[in-house]
């Protein structure tokens, strides 16, 4: 452990975490000079306004550094306001005995003050409800809760990349704009320029109305006149220069008529063909959407590089206002060739365990914050998930367990029978009551799963699996992919999917097909699982949902 302060690599400041998160709480740095910067959490004047105590936070950790500023160093009235930004030079010193903090900073010079209007600043010293904070999405990262969420997300993101890199997976950037519906649900955001182009055209036609038939006919008469002029010059054996000028005028008249005829055909509104929207005139010359998953495209790389993954934003145009839904969310999606459902479940379990252990090893300060303020069981939950083997049961066994629970008096809002898609309450019963740990359910009815999942030998179920965890329910959904061309084609027809947009996907089965599998983890759900937050909108820096797209 060093006895000197550690500056940020690209700044003169010393990150607060490098002071207060030392094993000694920073006491070993007493006597050292440091420049720190951050935002005032709380401040108060003392000793008849002779000096002020400020709690400063720079976001590098959950904890604050107490700084002491004397009145001759700056305007204490501005410095004590919650939300003010300060950068100061000072000396670290030991506080008086009995104080909670192990070290504090005696300010020698105030370098910078970012003032705040206390009458308008929306974040008070006291805690605001998380729902209200969503109205100030541009400022809420300054709160203790959202700052901790940001650090947890960052660590989980790094852990994800490390997990897959250490196991030989290659990272692939899949497109955000797609012409395929991976889920087959149709709840996709459409990407089009037809509307903006139609609005632009309408304004243009109002400002510059299209030519009438009379205008076009008059322009054609000019062509005839220019043609006669050329003929007369040739008959009179005029010079090449004179004839050339006349020919150029004739050509110009012809081009003008072509433009007028083209413009006279313009109609306001979105282009139509055979009574339907003409997407051939759209930007991509076909219908395009924001992706709901990178899986289909990722499979093409798995069938070449063997083990790959993607990690990026996905979108779902589901008009839901529940605490479980976002319109934009991040997915971690690995794909593995030469692998089957058992391998898929092994990888998913190892990945969740790795992330849980990572949080325990690297994020304990923030996890303790969530345990204290949000969910007392969150540390126990991820500890159990990191250390305990997951239960594995078939879908049929899961339904039997739920049915037995109903017989014994358990009441569910959603009816339980074979063939249903398990609801969140069913998933949480299995993980929180029956097994009291994560559960992997596999071999689901084919009717409730996507077309690309491998049909089992019973022709009733598919090789699908979901990882269910306490607090959240479904955390991961995955499957062995259908590698048999004829079976996949039959499934697509059975589900009424158009074949043409998926011809490229079928090519992966036509040319060098291979058994392969993969899964998708909802990243915000992993954050929710770790932190215990009730609403998934608080697990995303800038949440998008039905009716809300702030910033």
TrEMBL record:
It catalyses: tRNA(Asn) + L-asparagine + ATP = L-asparaginyl-tRNA(Asn) + AMP + diphosphate + H(+). Its EC number is 6.1.1.22. One of its GO terms (molecular function) is nucleic acid binding. Residues 215-271 form the WHEP-TRS domain. One of its GO terms (biological process) is asparaginyl-tRNA aminoacylation. Pfam families: tRNA-synt_2, tRNA_anti-codon. One of its GO terms (cellular component) is mitochondrion. Residues 308-541 form the Aminoacyl-transfer RNA synthetases class-II family profile domain. Keywords: Aminoacyl-tRNA synthetase, ATP-binding, Coiled coil, Ligase, Nucleotide-binding, Protein biosynthesis. Residues 236-263 form a coiled coil. It is an enzyme of class 6 (ligase). PANTHER family: ASPARAGINE--TRNA LIGASE, CYTOPLASMIC 1-RELATED, ASPARTYL/LYSYL-TRNA SYNTHETASE. Belongs to the class-II aminoacyl-tRNA synthetase family. HAMAP family: Asn_tRNA_synth. This is asparagine--tRNA ligase. It comes from Prunus avium.
């Amino acid at each position: 452990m060093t006895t000197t302060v550690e500056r940020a690599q690209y700044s003169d400041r010393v990150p607060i975490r490098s002071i207060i998160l030392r094993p000694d709480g920073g006491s070993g740095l007493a006597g050292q000079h440091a420049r720190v910067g951050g935002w005032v959490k709380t401040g108060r004047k003392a000793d008849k306004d002779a000096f002020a105590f400020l709690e400063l936070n720079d976001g590098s950790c959950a904890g604050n550094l107490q700084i002491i500023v004397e009145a001759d160093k700056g305007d204490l009235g501005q410095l004590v306001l919650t939300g003010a930004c300060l950068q100061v030079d000072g000396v670290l010193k030991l506080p008086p005995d009995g104080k909670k903090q192990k070290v504090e900073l005696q300010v020698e010079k105030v370098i910078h003050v970012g003032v705040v209007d206390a009458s308008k600043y929306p974040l008070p010293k006291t805690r605001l409800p998380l729902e209200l904070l969503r109205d100030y999405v541009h400022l809420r990262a300054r709160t203790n809760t959202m700052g901790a969420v940001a650090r947890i997300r960052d660590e989980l993101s790094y852990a994800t990349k490390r997990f897959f890199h250490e196991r030989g997976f290659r990272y692939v950037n899949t497109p955000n704009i797609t012409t395929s519906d991976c889920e087959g649900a149709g709840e996709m955001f459409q990407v089009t320029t037809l509307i903006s182009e139609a609005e632009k055209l309408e304004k243009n036609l109002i400002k510059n109305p299209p030519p009438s038939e009379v205008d076009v006919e008059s322009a054609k008469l000019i062509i005839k006149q220019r043609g006669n002029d050329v003929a007369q010059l040739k008959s009179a054996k005029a010079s090449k220069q004179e004839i050339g000028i006349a020919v150029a005028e004739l050509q110009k008249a012809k081009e003008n008529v072509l433009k007028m005829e083209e413009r006279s055909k313009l109609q306001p509104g979105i282009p139509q063909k055979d009574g339907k929207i003409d997407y051939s005139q759209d930007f991509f010359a076909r219908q395009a959407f924001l992706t709901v998953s990178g899986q289909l495209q990722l499979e093409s790389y798995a069938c070449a590089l063997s083990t790959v993954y993607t990690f990026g934003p996905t979108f779902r145009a589901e008009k839901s206002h529940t605490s479980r839904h976002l319109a934009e969310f991040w997915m971690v999606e690995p794909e593995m060739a030469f692998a089957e459902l058992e391998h898929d479940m092994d990888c998913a379990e190892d990945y969740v365990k790795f992330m849980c252990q990572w949080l325990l090893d690297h994020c304990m300060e923030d996890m303790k914050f969530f345990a204290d303020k949000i969910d007392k069981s969150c540390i126990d939950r991820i500890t159990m998930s990191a250390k305990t083997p997951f239960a594995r049961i078939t879908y049929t066994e899961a339904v039997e367990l739920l049915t037995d629970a109903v017989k014994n008096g358990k009441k569910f809002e959603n009816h339980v029978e074979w063939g249903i898609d398990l609801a969140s309450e069913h998933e949480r019963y299995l993980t929180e009551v029956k097994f009291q740990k994560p559960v992997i359910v596999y071999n689901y009815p084919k009717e409730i799963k996507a077309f690309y999942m491998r049909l089992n030998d019973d022709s009733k179920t598919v090789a699908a699996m979901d990882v269910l965890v306490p607090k959240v329910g479904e955390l991961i959904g995955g499957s062995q992919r259908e590698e048999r061309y004829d079976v996949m084609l039959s499934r697509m027809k059975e589900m009424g999917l158009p074949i043409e947009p998926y011809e490229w996907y079928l090519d992966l089965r036509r040319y060098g097909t291979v058994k392969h599998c993969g899964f998708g983890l909802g990243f915000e759900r992993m954050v929710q699982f770790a932190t215990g937050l009730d609403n998934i909108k608080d697990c995303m820096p800038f949440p998008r949902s039905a009716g809300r797209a702030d910033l």
